[in-house]
Amino acid sequence: MLPVVALVGRPNVGKSTLFNRLTNTRDALVADYPGLTRDRKYGQATYDRKQFIVVDTGGITGDEEGIDEHMARQSLLAIDEADVVLFMLDARAGLMPADQGIAEHLRKVNKKVFLVANKVDGIDGDSESAEFYKLGLGNVYQIAAAHGRGVSQLLNTSMAPLAEDFPEMAVVDEGKDEEISTEEQRERLRNLPIKMAIVGKPNVGKSTLTNRMLGEERVVVYDMPGTTRDSIYIPLERDDREYILIDTAGVRKRRKVSEAVEKFSIVKTLQAIEESSVVLLVVDAREGISDQDLSLLGFVLNSGRSLVIAVNKWDGLNTDIKDEIKRELDRRLGFVDFARLHFISALHGSGVGNLFESVIEAYESATKRVNTALLTQIMEMAQEEHQPPLVRGRRVKMKYAHAGGYNPPVVVIHGNQVDDLPSSYKRYLMNYFRRSLNVMGTPIRIEFREGA
Ligand code: GDP
Ligand code: GDP
C-alpha cells in the first residue's frame, strides 16, 4: 500500500510550498470534487526511490465557523486517512493558539506525528522553534520549504517508520531473459487472478458497472471479507478466468459500520490503482473528459498500470451527439492511445461483457515475455525502415535490445549516442514495438543505454 503523508497546520505556514516541493507540482493531482474533497489536494511523491501520497489541506485556523469550519473538517479528514502527519508551524510567527488546538487533536489520534518548524531561513532556527517543544509532540524538525533546506532530513526521519509499507519503484531487471514458451507463459498467467480496479469520479457509474459485472449470470462471486483498510476485494470468475475486482465504489459493504468511509476517496482510488494489474477507468459520456479524469489518467500513466477506458452512459444518445463525443475523446485522450476505449451502458448492460476481453488483453500484453533475439530483430527492422537522425554529425547507432522488465514492458536499447535520440524518434520506436509485439492496453517504456 502506498503510504499517505498529510500536511496540516494553520493557513500560511507553508503547507502548499512543501507540497509543491515534495510532488514537483507537475505530478500534483488536484482534486476538486464538489462537496466531497474540496480543499484536499493529492500528489505523488518519491523519496529515495520510495513512493508515497501527499495530502495538502487548507488549514486549521482555530476559529472554526463558516469557511474555516469546512477547511478544518478537510484537515481532520486528511489526518484520518494519513499514515504520517507532518504538523507544520511557522517559526517566524511563533506558537499560536490555533497550533495548540491542532496539537490537542493530534495527541488524541493514534498517528505518527512530526513537528515541522518552517521558514527557518535567515533566522535563528534553534531559538525561534524552541517554544514548539511545549506542544508535547516530540522533536521539532527545522526546515525552509521554500528553499528545500532540512527537507530530506525530515523525510529520512518521518518515512522511517513506514519503511515496510513502501512499494519499491520498478527496478529494471537488466538482461534477464526468461526463455519460456508462449504456451507455458499462457498457462502460468492463467493461474493468476487479474486484479482489476474500477475507478473514476463520483457518479460516472462505477457502482452500477460493478454490480452489473457481479450480477452477470456467468460470473461466480466468492465471499471474501474486506482485507484492506481502503477497498474491498471481490474475487470473481468468468469464462474460466479468475479476477479480483477492487471495489472503490463501496458496492460491497464493510462488516463493521465503524469502517465506513466516505463513498468516494482519492486515497482509496490511488491505492486501488497501485494494487491493480489493470485499471478500468470509467468516464461519463455526457460529461466529457474533465480535469479530474485527466488527473486520474496521469496517475495511471505514472504507475505504469495497464488501462482500459469505459465510456459509460452511452444509452439514449443520438448519433450526432455520439459522433461529437467520439471526436472530443479522440482529441483529449490522444496521449493514452494504447488503451482500448469501450462505449457501454452499465445501466442496461450493453458492452459490459466485452470489457473483460480488453482487460485480459491488457494484462497479457503487460506481462508478455519477449526474448532478446526478437526485440533486437524488431529494433533492426525499425532502424532499417527509418534511420535514426544525425546527432552532431554522427549517425546514432542502435546495436541491440533486450527486455528490461514487464508490467509495464520495458525495452532496453543499447547503442551509440542513443541518449541523444529526439523524442519524435523515440515515439516512432515505441509505436513500432507496440505494433510488432501486438501490445495493447499497456504503456511500453523504452530505456536507452550508451555503449554495448
Ligand atoms: P499554506 O497556506 O500553509 O499552504 O502556506 P503557503 O505554502 O501558501 O505559504 C505561505 C507563505 O509563506 C507564502 O508567502 C510562502 O512563500 C511563504 N513561505 C513558505 N515556505 C517558506 C520558507 O521556507 N521560508 C520563507 N521565508 N517563506 C516561506
Ligand atoms: P458511482 O458514483 O461512480 O458509483 O456512480 P453510480 O453507479 O452510483 O451511478 C451514478 C448515477 O448514474 C446513478 O443515478 C445511475 O443510475 C446512473 N448511471 C449509471 N450508469 C448509467 C448508464 O449506463 N446510463 C445511464 N443513463 N445512467 C447510468
UniProtKB/TrEMBL annotation:
One of its GO terms (biological process) is ribosome biogenesis. GTP 1 binds at residues 9-16, 56-60, 118-121. Keywords: GTP-binding, Nucleotide-binding, Repeat, Ribosome biogenesis. SUPFAM superfamilies: P-loop containing nucleoside triphosphate hydrolases. GTP 2 binds at residues 200-207, 247-251, 312-315. Signal peptide: none annotated. It holds the Pfam family KH_dom-like. InterPro entries: AAA+_ATPase (IPR003593), G_ENGA (IPR031166), GTP-bd (IPR006073), GTPase_Der (IPR016484), KH_dom-like (IPR032859), KH_dom-like_a/b (IPR015946), P-loop_NTPase (IPR027417), Small_GTP-bd (IPR005225). The keyword Repeat applies. The keyword Cytoplasm does not apply. CDD domains: EngA1, EngA2. GO terms for molecular function: GTP binding; ribosome binding. Residues 3-166, 194-367 form the EngA-type G domain. It comes from the Bacteria. Belongs to the TRAFAC class TrmE-Era-EngA-EngB-Septin-like GTPase superfamily. EngA (Der) GTPase family. Associates with the 50S ribosomal subunit. PANTHER family: GTPASE DER (PTHR43834:SF6). GTPase that plays an essential role in the late steps of ribosome biogenesis. This is GTPase Der. It comes from Salinimonas iocasae.
